[in-house]
Amino acid sequence: MKMPPRQSIIKRGAWYVVIQAILIGLILFGPYGAPLLTTQAFRTPLQVFGIALGVLAFLIMLISAIHLGKNLTPLPFPRDDAKLVQSGLYGIVRHPLYFGVILASLAWLLIFPYVGILMYAIALFILFDLKAGREEVWLLQRFPAYAAYQSQVKKLIPGIY
Q1: pTM to 2 decimals?
Q2: Cβ atoms < 10 Å from Cβ of 21
Q3: How far is CA 22 from CA 18, 25, 29, 73, 148, in A?
Q4: pLDDT of residue 39
Q5: For residues 92 and 20, what is the distance between their CA atoms, to the nearest angstrom?
Q6: Rounded to whole angstroms, how far apart are CA atoms 145 and 140?
Q7: Phi, psi values for residue 45, rounded to 5°
Q8: DSSP character for 154?
Q9: Three-state SS across 44-57?
Q10: Do 132 and 94 form a contact (C-beta atoms < 8 A)?
């Protein structure tokens, strides 16, 4: 099914990107609020795990972006010349870039365990769920095969959700 003529950037979901940028900025730069951990005994192992998780998140995002190729856009509205990608990491989770950013926010939380970061990370997950849901409406309109793909591959967290 063909998509309607080119829509404005707002109608293509730019507000999702703006809110996403604000939340990522808050995760990185605060305010952070109260610490979640007061003892150093747990903090160091969590920070080490957080760094490892951050590296994994970066690799997931990089591989996903490379595999998506010319289809890559920050907007949830697919490009006019988009092709449906279902292989590679896209065969494991429908939105691996979002998954990678979610992992990165969790990594940051492990490195800097503060209430604010936890709240921003939860808000970012909710935003990605909403953004992915809107994106999938458009993908279903564009690609009839997307319905079968949806039924076989989880949305944001491999094997879980």
Answers
A1: 0.92
A2: 11
A3: 6, 5, 10, 18, 34
A4: 85
A5: 23
A6: 8
A7: -60, -35
A8: B
A9: HHHHHHHHHHHHHH
A10: yes
How many whole angstroms separate alpha carbon 46 and alpha carbon 53? Answer: 10
Instruction: Report whether 158 contacts 98 (CB < 8 A).
Output: no
Tokens read off for 134: 């809107």
Q: Which long-range contacts (CB under 8 A, 24 or more apart) does 7-10 make?
A: 7/77, 9/75
Query: Which residues have CB under 8 Å from 154's CB, separation 6+?
Result: 93, 94, 160, 161
Q: How far is CA 37 from the centre of its chain?
A: 26
Sorted by sequence, the CB contacts under 8 Å of residue 82 that are 6+ apart come out as: 71, 142
**Each residue of 17-76: pLDDT tens digit?**
999 999 999 999 999 999 999 888 889 999 999 999 999 999 999 999 999 999 999 999
Distance between CA atoms of residues 37 and 85, nearest Å: 41
Q: Which two tokens stand for residue 76?
A: 């949830």
How high is the pLDDT of residue 132? 98
